Amino acid sequence: MFDVRFHLGAGEHYKHWQVKSKDEVLYYNPKQYYFMLHNCTLKNKRGTAEKVFSTQKRDVCGFVRCEDWELFEYTSHYNMNYEYGGELLYDPKIAPFWRMENSQDSYDNTTYKRLITFGRRIFILP
């Protein structure tokens, strides 16, 4: 299993994607790379997220757990011809749970066969 999240901690990997397994932690610049994530669950440490929501002080609480992932480099031949099922959003300062664009419902613990990242964003692939 792999946990994927957008890293907002200060330092060299600020605003990079973090991919964490039990053996290693990797970082990727979202301006250079995008991911295809397979067999995913949206995870949230709800208590921590509620605290972030009420205090507006960031802490690690949301991530995507996936069985496998693929890394792609943006190239001059890059083409975003993907059909999307919607954008997933996570910002515990706005809402203490995973959301979908144009919805205020919680999507915590929902599962998806495939997700894809573009920049800092995550989209559902049908």
Short description:
With 126 residues, this protein is mainly β.
Indicate how many domains the architecture comprises. Answer: 1
Helix content: under 10%
Output mean pLDDT: 91
Beta-strand percentage?
Answer: over 45%
Order of the strands making up the biggest sheet: 3-2-1-5-4-8-9-6-7
Could you explain the architecture of this structure?
This protein has one domain. Helix content is 8%, strand content 46%. It is built from one helix and nine strands; from the N terminus they run E-E-E-E-H-E-E-E-E-E. The chain has one helix at residues 46-55; strands at residues 2-7, 16-20, 25-28, 33-44, 62-73, 86-89, 99-100, 111-118, 121-125. It has a nine-stranded antiparallel beta sheet with strand order 3-2-1-5-4-8-9-6-7, covered by helices on one side. It is globular, with a radius of gyration of 14 Å. The mean pLDDT is 91.
Secondary structure topology:
Layout lengths: L1 E6 L8 E5 L4 E4 L4 E12 L1 H10 L6 E12 L12 E4 L9 E2 L10 E8 L2 E5 L1
Antiparallel strand pairs: 1-2, 1-5, 2-3, 4-5, 4-8, 6-7, 6-9, 8-9
Name its key features.
126 residues, mainly beta, nine-stranded antiparallel sheet, 9 strands, 8% helix, globular
